[in-house]
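Lab notebook page, bench 4
Experiment: in silico fold of construct C2
Operator: M.H.
Input chain length: 174 residues
Purpose: comparison with the prior construct
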Amino acid sequence: MSEKRTSADRSTQSARARLDTPGGGWRGFNIDVEAVGRVSESIARFLGTGKYLLIQTVVVIVWIILNVAAVGLQWDPYPFILLNLAFSTQAAYAAPLILLAQNRQENRDRVSLEEDRSRAEQTKADTEFLARELASLRLAVGEVATRDYLRRELDEIKSLLAAREDDEDPQPKR
């Protein structure tokens, strides 16, 4: 009996073995992916502002001045190895954050594009339906007597009646 596994057992086991199926998370440590994404997007947005560039420029200038001019405070002498390490670390974190923000934006754009495409298809279908309805109404109106048609017919009948009266009454009334 142990050899007979149910389809639910097999699907659970195959889902665990698949690499594209997320696991249960780390033991006792759950990460809110959306919160991480929002924070990374806000950091990436800040990294692309003029305010950030100004702050970074001021920090670099102060760093260099303190390490060149203040002889007693030189924690990072001229080749500025520590400053270079700080920039490398910043770049190592900034690049993935920017990529993560771009991926999230791409996902939002894809959803928006799919919604726009669906809306456009629905609009096209509605337009085609209305065009067919309008064409059928034009055909139906073509078979219906219009005001001008009725007026012409009545004028013709009136003239026929007037001609008939003239034919029946050879003597004019005085």
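Observations: The radius of gyration is 42 Å. The chain has a mean pLDDT of 83.
Next step: discuss at group meeting.
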